[in-house]
Structure prediction request, 515 residues.
Amino acid sequence: MRGHEEIPSSSLVPGNDPTLLFTNAGMVQFKDVFTGQASRAKPRATTSQKCVRAGGKHNDLENVGRTARHHTFFEMLGNFSFGDYFKSDAIAFAFELLTKSYGINPARLVYTVHHSDDEARQLWKKIAGVGEAQVIGLGDKDNFWAMGDTGPCGPCSEIHYHQGDDIPCDEIAAGGSCQGPACDCDRWIEIWNLVFMQFEQVRGQERRPLPRPSVDTGMGLERLCAVLQGVRSNYETDLLRPLIDRVSALAKKPFVSTDYDGHSASMRAIADHARTTAFLVADGVFPDKTGREYVLRRIMRRAVYHGWLLGIREPFLAGLVANVIETMGGVYGELTERRGVILEVSDQEERRFRETLDRGLKILDQEMTGAHAHVPGALAFKLYDTFGFPLDLTRVVAEGRGWRLDEAGFETAMNEQRNRGEFQGSGEAAIDAIYQTLAQKVGATTFLGYEGLRASSTITALLSQGQMVEAATSASGRVTVVVETTPFYGEQGGQLGDAGWMRAAGGMGSMRVDE
Prediction:
């Protein structure tokens, strides 16, 4: 441990940074320490942090399934020094752990440094006993890290593992040469990043040295496991391959490790998204229409859609999520503690989206009869606004059928509707004046459906024939009942609303809820 205090993973919902949708790195829970707004009794820490990168600056969602290394959920190992040790010890610790403790062949490692950081360059040559060829200087894009436009920043050093020259490289295929660690191919895989926070970026001024330089390191567990288990894809490790095998069995199709465009790409995406679903719901994120809740909804819907592409016609997501809980609940107790809610949310969201999926695909096929070469933006927006069919799924359908999607036309349609003041979000219609008044008067209703199917509540308003009324009877016909809280899911985004019964306290009456 070298004096490092082991700290539990923080929540995926950042508690100290409203600018982040999700915790996306190990240093997030220590941000206030790095900026000097908080202090710690012990200057060294180590964590295994659960992370999500989907939405915002760090967004890996579109690449998931199509590469060997991208995920929306992953675990980041890290060690941190808060004004204690610096470059020399950080480099020595990393080299010793990888080559001595893990037994990785040092001949397969290459180290990148910022081109201006001669100190790190010389330390690698000394500690690792390597020559110039194994220490490569790169620019700000690859080897300089900043917390933001202002605040702590500094050069970083990445450790890359060479997987072999037999792995395809697009640069070579195009007539060029592989760029080594700077290349985007899978011949070289970054396994550890050591960030040396030695400067402070002041707005409108040059960087100035920090009085107490710090260290922030991050190593992806999935990538490390791939190296240690001798496989060339994170998805072939024992962290993810069991989930993929489960999807393969459900789809009755084989998984092919070299397939990054067809059925196997869908299997990778589903395995990743099942893990993300389990962990986000465990941390209190439920699928909805905005913010991180909408990102989760997109992830869950992508999993269901990829299942549809594989020919899986029955609900399957909750079963896969249960597998995640079984394998990871021993380390992350929140999965086991909230198992019931996680499975219920997974099942409900999938069933609702299957209704949306069926309707959207039928409309798309009806509209696209004939020799159309592209999907008009207006049609894509109609599917999105009226039926809650996400644009990214329309994109996937179009790609799969050889159609071009007019995304510029989609944006134009959205902007036109916004300018007319009608757009309220996916699947929502314009709100009449009576509902605007009602919203101001009684506030929003809190949805409790993910916590249970029954609830006690208070009626805050009644509407009959578009007008607020004080009372209603069976003679009133259909009425709208507004309550403080409800377990009923309202129809929206093309998803059918719940039905059931409302009963008055003391058995004084009941009412059928149709929608």
User: Anything to note?
Assistant: The two ends are 58 Å apart (CA to CA). Confidence is low (pLDDT under 50) at residues 422-432, 491-496. Residues 339-367 form the longest helix (29 residues). Residues 5-228 form a domain with the BirA Bifunctional Protein; domain 2 fold (CATH 3.30.930.10).
